From TrEMBL, chain A:
Keywords: FAD, Flavoprotein, Oxidoreductase. This is Xanthine dehydrogenase family protein subunit M. Gene3D superfamilies: 3.30.465.10, CO dehydrogenase flavoprotein, C-terminal domain (3.30.390.50), Uridine Diphospho-n-acetylenolpyruvylglucosamine Reductase, domain 2 (3.30.43.10). Residues 1-180 form the FAD-binding PCMH-type domain. GO terms for molecular function: FAD binding; oxidoreductase activity. The keyword Flavoprotein applies.
TrEMBL record, chain B:
Coiled coil: none annotated. This is Xanthine dehydrogenase family protein molybdopterin-binding subunit. Pfam families: Ald_Xan_dh_C, MoCoBD_1, MoCoBD_2. InterPro entries: Ald_Oxase/Xan_DH_a/b, Ald_Oxase/Xan_DH_a/b_sf, Ald_Oxase/xanthine_DH-like, AldOxase/xan_DH_MoCoBD1, AldOxase/xan_DH_MoCoBD2, AldOxase/xan_DH_Mopterin-bd_sf. Residues 20-138 form the Aldehyde oxidase/xanthine dehydrogenase a/b hammerhead domain.
Amino acid sequence: MKPAPFAFRRPATLEEALAALAEEPGAKVLAGGQSLVPLLSMRLAAPSMLVDINALPGLGHVRCSSDGGAAGVRIGALARHAHVLASTEAAEVQPLLAMALSHVAHPTIRNRGTTVGSIVHADAAAEMPMVLRLLEGSVDVASVRGRRTVPAGELFAGPLESTLAHDEIAVEAFFPALPEGAGVAFQEIARRHGDYALVGVAALVETDGGEVVRARVGFVSVSDVPVVVDVTDSLDDPAGKALAELDPAADIHATAAYRAHLVKVLTPRVLADAVHHARERNT
Amino acid sequence: MTTKLFGTKVPRVEDQRFLRGQGRYVDDLLTDDPRLLHAAVLRSPHAHARITDIDVADVLDVEGVLAVWTYDDLVDAMAQPLPLLIPHPTLTHGRTQYALAKDEVNYMGEAIAFVVAVDRYVAEDAVARIRVSYDQLPPVVGIAAARAADRLVHDDVPGNVGARMEQENGDARAAIADAPHTLRLELDVERSACTPMEGRGTVARWDPDTSRLTVWSSTQTSTGVRGCVAAKLGLDLAKVDVITPDVGGGFGVKINHPWPEELLVPLAAMTLGRPVKFTEDRREHFISSAHERAQVHHVEVGFDDDGRVLGLNVEFWHDHGAYTPYGLIVPIITSTQLLGPYKPANYRVVFESLYTNTVIVTPYRGAGRPQGCFVMERTMDAIAAYLGKDRTEVRSTNFIQPDEFPYEHGLVFQDGRPLTYDSGDYPASLEKLKTLVGWDEFEDFRAEMAAQGRRVGIGLACYVEGTGVGPYEGAHVHIETSGKVKVATGLTTQGQGHQTAFAQIVADTLGVRFEDVEITTGDTRKMPYAVGTFASRAAVMSGSAIHLASLRAREKALRIAAEALEAAEDDLEIVDGVVSVRGTDASIDLGTVAVLSNPLRYAFDEASKAATQFSVGDPGKPPVAEDDEPGLEGKDFYSPERSTFANGMHAVIVETDPDTAEITILKYAVVHDCGHLINPMIVEGQIQGGVAQGVGGALYERMEYDEAGQLLNASFMDFLMPYVTEVPTTIDIDHLETPSPLNPLGIKGAGEAGVIPSAAVFAAAIEDAERPYKPTLAITAMPISPSELFDLRLAHADVPAEAIAEETR
């Protein structure tokens, strides 16, 4: 359980970090290390170089804005889950962040793990990639070639695979604010508290005069990539609609049938919670 | 004695050190020594294969690598198989592995090569460069495959059967045939493992000037390791010291010895002339240390209208993994301790201990009892369900009664002695448990919950645990001239609180201050004769030995003090380290008595000066009398004729979610009888830890082997040891203290108790929660996950909703 040899860089500026990545095709970015370091220790990953971005300035922010089209929460690449979770302002601007983050592993892991790192790790069993996708957020990405913004819908390519190029660093994630009249909810079932969910479900509903005008549901651990399903037109059987787009699989913790069952149990519950949340916010 | 400590909740003296990170474990040793080398092991990636070639040519090129060993490098005793520690006449086909695999590997994780380098990183790099050619063989995984014997683990072991053992008291099959009612059950318990926080670890240092080997090992038996190391390396026993520092948990896995690394590390240290360390990592622990639990049972039981068991016939199959270094201890315990507090009129048990291409099986806390308890208690529940009787009533009917002790079962226990229970009061324990858990009020609670759409169930399980197995432990008590008391006992400690509990015994027996007592364990330099810490035996064995040794020291102190104070021994008392003549102010400190006990009279300290006012000894005789020896010491050994049997009963109330099949613990109650309690806080800590481990075994943990013999969940991400969030925040505990007549303190072991009934009690409670809705649903395999409960619900028909409404009304 000791990593294979690798070169180590701890650049002081983003430019240096991007240059190091560009020069070394076998390099990996180290942020919180909560996924990468176990992979290194088990020698399941053996990058030629680690580019440790923890010394980069100006990436630790959790910045909230409630103005107009840019309203939302901007989370820097070095903001830890715990930092985001502790932000009452972020929880007000986009309540789903805190709802989901409290299910991300345990305090010790949340103290080191970064939200942006979790997103670009692109694990369909992780909460935050799905949350970004459900909220239709985006990730700002930098490389020696410049910067670009990747919408969440274009971020996830496959199991543990994002669409980022090797030499790109995700520097910030943007989670749009919860609009007026909208509500969110999150529930998951895990074998132990803090484990990856057997199934996790989040919902975002928009209401108008108490009526649901848009309803979308995101799922954890029942697909290869984070999946979000629009169930606005199937509120009588939202789980049925969702299951057509999901691919629950068996593993050592649960059968596929049980996961599908949990989708059926949780989806209506979470939708109801989100509607309740929307109504509560309106009153 | 003014302040009796025995029986009081003395805070553990260990905890400050442990909680502040000041424990000193094997991996903490010699870290400042620049000469220290580190070992890593190449382990088989296959469950079953012939090794056709091992090429280490690339390894020695790695900078920082000092040496690599494969089987071909081993000579003499090291080239022989590892010892079969506990042979048994019925273990007709016992097999053990080599320190490094010879020609064949029989489980994924078996050691093949041993690399020593300047650090563990380099050692692992080197391991990755060893090229092994394998001819893969079909693996045998699981009890069904082992029984089918289409494939063999060892070519020379027909049917994969290592042992077949049968015991019978009466004629069970005839009694069942004649019984008014009979039932058959098929029961299954999965593999699990101890998984202590600290894995295995060994450090060795060879001193060429004195030809002396010092070995530190994270073991449950330092004397055992010492014997093995000396024998395997061809050293005189007197040239080998084995020291066990702090140990981060054992739970059984560290009683097996010697592990390959426990021999290879000293071998490397001697060969290279530098200290060598091996620290097992977590993955290695999963794939190369021991597992336990996996058994399949077939039960036939005959009983009368009251539920009295007239005949019980149990056949079971025990998966012992690839080798049998620890003999048949686990299945023998299952086969005998299965009986619990009951007395079936006729009992027959037969087991086969089977080879599979998986990690070896050696005792894990409970050591075969959880399986036995599961089988017996499921049987009791089945009888109660069949007869429509309360589950406690059927159990009461079958209890051994208080006036029947000592109770002979007519069987032979794991220690080779008759299975004879020494004491207990099972009806009283059951009454306490019913009160503690609210057994008689439960139906009201069930109805109340049902009205809210919630499902709850209650279960109970009883067990008896043979503890304090022999053959012996010893203790040496030395009162220094400062009055401080240094005590050594040879068994090891792995966090149980021995320093505290043993010091309580010494303080009481000797009449000294608790703070003045220091206990040393697991150091062969201090106490070369010892057995080890397993089978809930430390308190009974070493506690009794320490008591006896303290009595000897006390006896000598009183004799010398009587002479010094010119008083009769009967008139003396010892309080807080001062011997005084009752009713007078004549007194002498124990430290001064210690000075007087040694005719060497260099007055180099205050104690020596204080002693000059006293005169002891007969000037006409030698300074040390013929039957005496210098020093104020006591040494004694405790060796009981047989084990002492503790018992307990657990009950749990669980809730099963009607929709998600999640299982939640609402209340957990324990009544425990381990005789006199030395320290109730430590005993309750043991119970709580045991229950936590039991929750893991019942609801979370299992070893997931695939058909190829690959262990799929060899990490704490996928092997679901419960977190604190999965364990009940409170456990209601009540004690009964039925003393053992077998030892001077009347104590019984408590270490394993908490874990024994878990599978049984959770199976019963979950089944009870489901039965009103699924009347045919039976829990016959443990552990159980929500996914599995969901499957069980699908497999069994519902009760019509009207019927439930009728029932709860």
